[in-house]
Specification:
The complex is a heterodimer. Chain A is mostly beta strands. Chain A is built from 4 helices and 19 strands. In chain A, strands 6-2-3-4-18-17-16-10-14 form a 9-stranded antiparallel sheet. A 5-stranded antiparallel sheet of chain A has the order 5-1-7-8-9, covered by helices on one side. Chain A is globular and about 55 Å long. Chain B is an alpha+beta fold. Chain B contains 1 helix and 1 strand. Classes of the chains: A mainly beta, B alpha+beta. The A-B interface holds A 40, 43-47, 124-129, 157, 206, 208, 233-234, 250, 252-257 and B 1-14.
Chain lengths: 257, 14
């Protein structure tokens, strides 16, 4: 039997919002470590990986590892029935074909129980290599969202050039060109507003804005986003979920032939 | 010409 409880439904609602435009179906793997999910989008250009650790839950019980195959659209719809402040319990029997979602209002006066049909999914899993990156940029997540949105008005791709002390995001299109330069913060009072740029070697790579705009749906989960970049490998766009885990997106670069 | 890479080209099936 699997059962877990979170004090606020809000975080799981935001997590579903961050996933449902990119993937249609996915498997939540449940183990003693927590909940995790890994899936590529239908065109295999990007991959999303979510980890929600046991320690972040109020209660977490998992007698046996199980895989919960879900339709993301359905799960997101049901999650929307919870108020942000409701506490939420997820429950499933070991060999069951249902996932129960129980929402309880903070004053305990209203309890809603939904049951979602699970799917038998066979989803290809990729091994994510544990590697060092040439550059890591941390910046306010809202700023990154804005840059991706604004550059989409110009072109389909963004070229990211990282040098010591700053990053250039540039796009080219039929109507013209754009370049946004973000400089590393020299002095920041609030950590959430900081831009930090770690460079082991300068990099210059091109990525599809369409996918980056999908990734920025995770913005409400975290004040900061980190971008890890190395030559000729997928970009990692990571959002930490405070005290609970993370949502990480991987995006294959565009490569010049 | 610029080609879009695919995740399968970078990460192996586990």
């Amino acid at each position: 039997m699997f059962e877990c409880r979170l004090p606020k439904a809000e975080v799981l609602k935001k997590t579903m919002d961050a996933l449902k435009d990119l993937i249609k179906e996915a498997v939540w793997d449940v183990s003693a470590q927590g909940l995790s999910l890994q899936s590529m989008d239908s065109s295999h250009v990007s991959l999303v990986q979510v980890t929600l650790r046991t320690e972040g839950f109020d209660t977490f019980r998992c007698d046996k590892n199980i895989a919960l195959g879900v339709n993301m659209d359905t799960m997101q719809k049901l999650m929307k029935c919870a108020s942000n402040d409701d506490n939420i319990t997820l429950k499933s029997e070991d060999n069951g074909d249902l996932l129960s979602l129980i929402f309880e209002s903070p004053n305990g006066e209203k309890t809603s129980e939904y049951e979602m049909k699970l799917m038998d999914l066979d989803i290809e899993q990729l091994g994510i290599p544990d590697q060092e990156y040439s550059c890591t940029i941390k910046m306010p997540s809202g700023e990154f969202q804005r840059i991706c949105r604004d550059l989409s008005n110009i072109g389909e791709s963004v070229n990211i050039t990282v040098v010591k002390g700053g990053v250039d995001f540039s796009a080219k299109g039929d109507i013209g060109n754009a370049k946004i330069h973000v400089t590393e913060s020299s002095n920041v009072d609030n950590e959430k507003d900081a831009v930090t740029v770690e460079v082991n070697e300068p990099v210059n790579l091109t990525f599809a804005l369409r996918y980056l705009n999908f990734f920025t749906k995770a913005t409400p989960l975290s004040g900061q986003v980190s971008l890890s970049i190395s030559p000729d490998v997928p970009l990692v766009v990571a959002y930490e979920i405070e005290d609970l885990g993370h949502v990480k997106y991987f995006l294959a670069p565009k490569i010049e032939n | 010409k610029i080609n879009q890479g695919r995740m399968d080209d970078f990460f192996k099936i586990s």
